[in-house]
Amino acid sequence: MIYRLLILFAFMLLIDFINHRARMLMFRRLKGSIIYKYIFISYWGITVAIILSLLISLLITGLPELDYVKYRTYFTLFGIFMIFYFPRLIFIFFAFAQWIYYAFVNILNGRNSTKVARDNKKNYSIQNLGLIISFLFSFLVVYGMIWEKSNFKVSNIPVYIEDLPKSFEGFKIAQFSDVHLGSWHNAENVRKGLKLINSQSPDIVFFTGDLVNNIVDEMEPYLQDLKQIEAPFGKYSILGNHDMSDYVKWKNFKLKQEYLNKLVRNEEDCGFKMLLNSNVILKIKDDSIALIGVENWGLPPFKQYGDLKKAMEGIENVNVKILLSHDPTHWQEKVVGKTDIDLTLSGHTHGMQMGIDFWGIRWSPIQWIYKHWFGLYQEKSQYLYVNPGFGFLGYPGRFGISPEITILTLHKSNLKQK
């Protein structure tokens, strides 16, 4: 832990020195004045205070291990780090852009670089823009930690399936994912989101994994709330990568398995049918569709517990199939073009908990990692919906990518006539 802290603080100091250099150049005309000294002292005073506070807090808290409450402390500290250091990191890009710009100006004008550096008329418009954006980003981080992380929204998504049985026309599916119960400080915010599911009057409820961060104990304050989720055709759940408790250093495999088994039992006691590499056939009158669930399956470093072949046994003659699979890469690697599964529901990405989602524009840095990261995707007659998540992990908030309850309504379509 000490070595990791040293690396972290070395990185922070590097960011600070570059920021300090860039800002002092911007205010060099004020050099020698009280304002210049105040800027210098306040910048490094705040920096030292932040580093010391983080260091003392981390040392006092210690390693979380099986204490999920300690994880909240880590997430809060990470949020503080983001408030102060992500804006500084962003500013560095603008500072480099400013320096590159003046390097080109120097070359084009044939001027001496020293002379350019000392030019009092030199403006720093790019860096000024960087300062504004940095402050805006800092505000968004704070806003996301206080307000937007519990600003749940409902997204209504129509899905058109060619062979959908008549009895399932207009069938409403509620999907929620990635609750991460251990991350929440305010239990009322969790309850507000869970109550929103019932308010949509869905026919069926699907949970697509990561109910906890690491251990089953995180569920205890919310057992009654999870029981109160209702739907006439039941509620179904699968396990995500965090549910598998792979991020805890267990004393032995048996203890890990005991926690996992208790998690499954708790979900079942709350009324969820666990689809653990298995399936059920849902019937309305004489019509039926198959519901399939796999344990977490992801590309490395995530483990591949999911067994789709096993999960699909015995449903070969069912025309319409819906799969619950936590990680959307499973759809890309094992489902689309390789199976006759009509609709896959996933989560996992959280939409990175930050990005843009308005006026038809949807963007997040997570799309550089995941091709399918948020929303409805279609390849021929096969669909994938990636829910951006209910909760949060790491950064204790969200901005731009709100927590979501998804309502998917099934409709019949005849693709052959299109």
N- and C-termini, Cα separation:
60 Å
User: How many E strands?
Assistant: 14
Radius of gyration from the CA trace?
Answer: 26 Å
Q: What is the CATH class name of the largest domain? A: Alpha Beta
Instruction: Assign the CATH topology of the largest domain.
Output: Purple Acid Phosphatase, chain A, domain 2
Percent strand equals 15-25%
Strand order, sheet with most strands: 1-14-2-3-4-5
Task: Describe, in plain words, how this protein is organized in 3D.
The strands form 3 sheets. A 6-stranded mixed sheet has the order 1-14-2-3-4-5. Strands 6-7-8-9-13-12 form a 6-stranded mixed sheet. The protein has helices spanning 2-26, 34-61, 68-109, 113-117, 125-146, 187-199, 223-227, 253-269, 308-311, 329-335, and strands at residues 153-161, 172-176, 204-207, 235-237, 272-274, 278-284, 287-293, 321-324, 343-346, 356-358, 361-363, 375-379, 382-386, 404-412. The protein folds into 2 domains: 2-146, no CATH class; 152-417, Metallo-dependent phosphatases (Purple Acid Phosphatase, chain A, domain 2, 4-Layer Sandwich). Helix 1 packs parallel to helix 3, helix 2 (34-61) runs antiparallel to helix 3 and helix 3 (68-109) runs antiparallel to helix 5 (125-146). It is α/β, with parallel strands linked by helices and 418 residues long. The radius of gyration is 26 Å and the shape is elongated.
